[in-house]
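Notes, p. 3: input format for complexes.
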Amino acid sequence: MTILIHATTPFAGQLPGTSGLRKKVTVFQQPHYLENFVQALFDVLHGDAPAAGQTLVLGGDGRFHNRVAVQTILKMAAARGYGQVLVGQGGILSTPATSAVIRRRGASGGIILSASHNPGGPDGDFGIKYNGTNGGPAPEKLTQAIYERTQVLSRYRLSDAADIPLDTLGTYSMEGMAIEVIDPVADHAAVLRGLFDFDAIRRLFAGGFRLRYDAMWAVGGPYAKAIIEGELGAPAGTVVNAEPKEDFGGLHPDPNPAYAEDLIAHLMGPDAPDMGAASDGDADRNMILGRRFIVSPSDSLAVLAAHATKVPGYARGLAGVARSMPTSTAVDRVAQSLGIACHETPTGWKFFGNLLDAGQITLCGEESYGTGSDHVREKDGLWAVLFWLNLVAVTGQSVEQLVRGVWQAHGRCVYSRHDYDGIATERANALMAELRAQLPSLGGSTVAGQQIAWSDDFAYTDPVDGSVSQKQGVRVVLEDSSRVVFRLSGTGTEGATLRVYLERHEPDATRQDIPAQEALAPLIALAEAVAHIRQHTGMDAPSVMT
Ligand code: VG1
Ligand code: CO
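Output follows (546 residues plus alpha-D-glucose-1-phosphate-6-vanadate):
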């Protein structure tokens, strides 16, 4: 029976954020909070009509509260009249796998329960996001409409049916809606199998190539185990920390040098494997390491673009590429040499969707350890790892050689991101306001001994639908195209996070091995001088440097 509940918690989410709604688990545990979001979503999608005949995909990264939320959403979807829900076994579906399932099964959309790389557990974070029929994150106009709807809702509908046994594959029924508990890996694996030369990768492993894939106790584990160990014959134990845990083992499932310390230690050690890799909470991010060599995400995208035609799925060449604005210009240089377009979009995967749908780009990526292509509409951690394995297998070059090849051809884009976490929101806003107030006078001025060529607040007009996104980050650019970018995170749950992105192009091969923080020192000084970070944040150093 469908019942109508009359009280809802007013929703105070930060939508539209970079990707969906993220809050502390305790916030999501408030009565009616999740329900309010889901009802608003269904109302915006379907108006007053039932979602008859439509298929919804549902799953999450397995973090604490995942199972509870899945059962609630099933009951709400049943009350809404959905034809069918495809739910991952155990409530599990990685973000890229959800995208793959939506696309392959012709679903009308999907709900992903994840706070991505944010920590989990009862005191950690939870999140929910909606992906549309193309398999990609909801565009801003949809998230904005959901947010507005949450503010006026006073009731929602759900079924009072019993919970569904999520751990057993099979088909169930609720209020006439079919629920299929699906293998979370199968659809995604089928897509990946069609892109890469699995035989070549199998031979690589058979020849003794050693990979260490750290799934960070998150949702990437089952996928990496099934494909890398299961199908590609990598020895058992290649994928470590592979079992999804509700609290990610108490760690931060964020694959970067700060949070993947253990993996870095293995790759820097005396018995280092040939390659290291890691994925985040929902397995859309990736980190790639060579033996005693760390690959910057921006360089990773450039390497994949430079060698794409060596991989079966991209043998026809690339239509174009795209990167988020703060991502380094390494891929721009590769694109130029390939004679293809390179688009610069705001931060967040949703901005790649239209370009991918329109066939204008094939590969895209972000400096935040995200890379992907038109095979799905999300960034895809395992895809990136397989791409690298395929390239190593067919070129015979090591990870380090592949990166150095790009540096040799195009120079090195020395790059770093400094994050200042947990700033009081008003203070972070004041810092950005002060920066923006300086914009008219920064261009042409000299600050901290640096001649600033121009400065702006990045705005983006989507070339496909013409939608405009303002205030996407303050850029301060020098004559030699070195730059500092400032923006506030849209995914945090505690106060504000300031991100400072630093980039300098180094064409001189003899200077490319200078440590990044040293090579970027003049830009770091410039950042402090224009933004007064210490004064505004009260912090002497970034919380995290990647
Ligand atoms: C961060 C990254 C951004 C990424 C987003 C979602 O956003 O900077 O590049 O798209 O996380 O990644 P922000 O607003 O905090 O800088 V994930 O792995 O959530 O899905
Ligand atoms: Co993620």
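The mean pLDDT is 95.
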